[in-house]
Amino acid sequence: MQKNSISQNKPAIIKKSFGFLANGKEVFCYTLSTKSGMELDVINYGASLVSLKIPLENGNKVDVVLGFESLSDYINSFGLPNAPYFGAIVGRYAGRINQAQFPLNDKVISLTKNYNLHQIHGGLEGFSKAFWEVITADSNSITLEYCSKNGEENFPGEVVTQITYSLTEDGELKVSMIAKSNQDTILNLTQHSYFNLDGHSDSIVNQELLVNASETLETTSENIPIGKFINLKEHEFDFSTPKKCPTYIDNTFVLSKENAIAATLFSKKNNLKMSVLTNQPAVHIYVGGNCFNQIKGKENANYHPLSGICFEAQNFPDAPNHEHFPSAVLKKGETYIHNTIFKFENL
Questions:
Q1: What is the pLDDT of residues 191-236, one digit of tens each?
Q2: pLDDT tens-digit profile of 42-97?
Q3: 309 in Cβ contact with 286 (< 8 Å)
Q4: CA 312, 63, 293 angle in degrees (round to 5)?
Q5: What's the rounded Cα separation, in Å, for the pair 305 and 293?
Q6: pLDDT level of residue 6 (50, 70, 90 thresholds)
Q7: Those residues with Cβ within 8 angstroms of residue 234's Cβ, 6 or more apart along the chain or in another chain
Q8: For site-directed labelling of 93, which of 31, 99, 284, 310 has its Cα 20 to 30 A away?
């Protein structure tokens, strides 16, 4: 992974100040766009997506992701009863790790705990609260980098991660993640945007969900995988044919085909469809976004428990503690590669 200066070969990206961290570092918001009218706002705090505006057939645009208007709101959201991680990159390990520990190379690694006795979404700080350096940027693509030091949240190895967000003229938001470590470690990244095709200030209950999966992970009451699978045939979360979004879901769906359509979301109101494609073995689907009347969303929106739906393309939660789950080990010198596409179509 090579560092480059911000690209001068393509039209300039729009860049504006988004606030300052406690250590004095300035966070910026970068606006990407396409000729067809897509617009994406990204901040380099958590490499977070703030806004994603999609053009509709009627000439209007709809902002389909939840977010905040100020850096302080993003920072303060981690103090909510259930931190939403709006639009952030989650790492080093997305999802839960049982007892905040795992075996690696005949040793037991003990991590920081931030979910009862367990770890979730990378621990107390994690990638979602990190300051990411912008490596390259132009009008429709941006690459951000974060170096996670050896021992961060007690994970072994120094891990350098680059995230590239790019927009295409075909209505796609492409998310590409690559990472390398100087020691054997574990890694499981995801993009944690909350989508709402009716608009970020609406509810997802009237949208239709389809998931191309025949199994989901069986979990404990704390949503920790126990190593078994549940057949989705005739199950309430069988979304093999489109059904209305559930009012509660926090489940990992096992994907059978790499780079195929993992899930789709459809808004009858806006006649808009989003397809999720990924090379990851699972997609964790979660309905939420509640800000508990403590923090207002963009445009003074009051985000509630049904404000958005996440499609967290990733490895299985707690995979390092289950030998028959896909391996989450990133060997020294090897490259972690994660590709996810969110494709939007007017129907």
A1: 999 999 999 999 999 999 999 999 999 999 999 999 999 999 999 9
A2: 999 999 999 999 999 999 999 999 999 999 999 999 999 999 999 999 999 999 99
A3: yes
A4: 75
A5: 11
A6: very low
A7: none
A8: 31
> Does the active-site annotation cover 312?
yes
Cβ-based neighbour number of residue 323 at 10 Å: 9
Q: Which of 192, 200, 284, 338 is catalytic?
A: 192
Fill in the amino acid letter for 69.
Answer: E
Q: Specify the DSSP class assigned to residue 81.
A: S
Q: Within the chain, where are the H helices?
A: 71-77
* Known catalytic membership, residue 26: no
Strand partners, 178: 162, 337
Across-strand partners of 49? 42
Q: Are 152 and 173 in contact (CB under 8 A)?
A: no
Type of residue numbered 280:
Q
CA distance 298 to 296: 7
Torsion of CA 233, 262, 211, 213, to 10 degrees: 10
- Reading the block at residue 13, the tokens are 């990206």
pTM above 0.85, yes or no: yes
Which of these is catalytic: 118, 312, 322, 338?
A: 312
Copy the structure tokens of residue 179.
């990472």
Q: How far apart are CA 28 and CA 314, in angstroms?
A: 27
- Contact by Cβ (8 Å): 287, 204: yes
Q: How many CB atoms lie within 10 A of CB 23?
A: 6
Side chain identity at 285, as an amino acid letter? I
Distances 251 to 25, 212, 283, 311, 317 between C-alpha atoms, Å? 37, 14, 8, 10, 10
The one-letter code for the residue type at 237 is: F
| Peptide bond preceding 92 in cis form (omega within 30 of 0) | yes
Q: Up-side HSE of residue 164: CA atoms within 13 Å toward CB? A: 19
